[in-house]
Amino acid sequence: MRLPTFSILLLLACVTAVSACASPYSATGPDDRAAIARNGFSADDVGYVLFDPDSGAVLAERQPAKPFAPASVAKLPAMAAALAVLGPDHRFETTLHITGRLGDGVLDGDLILKGGGDPSLSSEGLTELLGDLGALGVTRVTGRFLYDTSALPEMPEIDAGQPWTAGYNTGVGALSLNFNRFRFDWARPAAAGQPVRVSAWSVSDTGRVPLDSVTVQLGAGAGAAFTPLIAMDGEPANGEPEGERWRFAPQPGMAASLWLPVTRPGLAAAHVFRRLAAEAGIALPAPAPGAVPPTATLAALHRSEPLEVLARQVLRYSNNLSAELIGLAAARRLDPAVRTLPESAAVLTAPAMLAAPRTDWTGLRLLNHSGLSAGSRITPAQTMALIQGAGPAVLALLPGEDEGKVLPPGVRAKSGTLAYAKALAGTLTTANGRTLGFAFFVTDEPQRAAMDRTMDRRIAEIPPEARAWLARARKLQADLLELWIAGL
C-alpha cells in the first residue's frame, strides 16, 4: 500500500530524530522559582526555553521536552511554512467564469463563482467582480448560477471541541467570505402579540448584506439561546431547507446583537454575491454547487494582498480561519491528497522536522494550523527548532502585543490562549541589547481535561475559574519576560 506523502515524511522524521533536549524536568538560567510560586503555579505546569537564535545555544530552560498545548502559537510555524512553500508574493484568486452566449445584456448560459481560498475575501471583493461582470454588459443569466469550492476541502468547523456559537470556530472552505461570521440581530416585540424580530447579516467594513443561507426558528425556554438544527456535516434532512438553521430562544439580559459562525461558507458567499448582484442590476438564479467546466471563459478576477501581508495580519490578529486557509493551501501544494486539518498540519510540519533532525520530535501533535484545539501538543524545544527554521524575515512579522495588549519593549511574539493553557513564542531584546529567542508555555492538564469532559457545546462562556487561571498565567508570563530581559 502506498503511504500518503505526509506519512512518509513523518516516518522519515521519526527515524532521523535524535534527542538533543535536557531532562524534561530540568531548569537552568535565572532563578524562576519565586515567580512561579508567586503566581500560584507548580513548577511542573511550566515549560520554556530561552536561546540564541543564531547559534542555537540554550541560555535558560525548564521542562524543554514536555509537550504543552500551543494554542495560537501554532500559527507561527504554520505561517512560516506557508511563506516557504507558496512564497511571500503569493496571492489568492477568486474568479468568475461564464459559459454560453452573451447578447443584449443576457447571458444565455451559466455563471460560476470559484473560490481560491482567499482568507481576506470580503463583500468589497465580490463587488469588484460584479463591476467587471457589469462592464461586459451582463444584466441577466438564463442558465445556472454555480459556486465552485473544489480548490480546498470544505468543513463546517475548525474544532469539534468548541461551543456551537463560537464566532472563532467557523466553517472552512475555498469560498470563504467576511471571515465566515454572520451578525445576528434580534428585538423584542414592540407590542403584545407581535413576534420577536430576527435577522442575519454578512458584514464587511463598508456595510452589511442579508444572509439568505441562514434561517432562524424561534423557540422558548431557559438554557441556551442558540442551538443548530442541521447536523454539523452540513447536509439538510429531507424536507428541510438548504443552508444553516438555528433555533433561537431569547434569554434574559442577552445582547441584541452577536456574532455566530458560518458553517456552510461556499453557500453563504454565493447568496451574498447574488444579493450584491441584484443591487448592481444583475439578476441571478438561486445558487447551486458546481464546478467550472473546461470550456468556460474567465470573466473576472479578484486577487488578495500578497501572502506576506496576510501572514503578518494572522500573526497579529490571530484569525483562526485565515490560518487554516493559508495552511491548507500550502499543504495541498505539497500534497494535493490532503483532505483534513490534521493531515494538513502534518504535511507542513514534516519539512521542518527533517530540517532539524537533532531535535527530539516525540510528542509533537498539531491538529490544525490555528491552534484551536485542546488536543494539540508541542514542546518548548520543538518550538525553538521551528522558530529557528522560520528565519529572521518571518520573525520580523511578529507583533509587539499579546491579545491587543502591548508587550514589553523589544518583545515580538505570537501569543496563544485557551482555557487552562497560555503560550508565547518569539524574540526579545535584553537590557544589554542582545536578541534572544524564547518559547514559553504554562498549562493545567487536569483542569482542562475536567472541563472537556463536562463540556456543553451550547455554552460559549469559559468558567470564571478558567478566566482567573488565565489572569495568573499572563502575570507569570510578564514576570518571566522581565526576568529574562533584565538578567541576560
TrEMBL record:
One Pfam family hit: Peptidase_S13
Keyword terms: Carboxypeptidase, Hydrolase, Protease, Signal
Database matches in PROSITE patterns: PROKAR_LIPOPROTEIN
EC number: 3.4.16.4
GO MF terms, alphabetically ordered: serine-type D-Ala-D-Ala carboxypeptidase activity
Signal peptide segment: 1-22
Annotated family: Belongs to the peptidase S13 family.
UniProt-listed PANTHER family: D-ALANYL-D-ALANINE CARBOXYPEPTIDASE, PENICILLIN-SENSITIVE CARBOXYPEPTIDASE A
Protein's UniProt name: D-alanyl-D-alanine carboxypeptidase/D-alanyl-D-alanine-endopeptidase
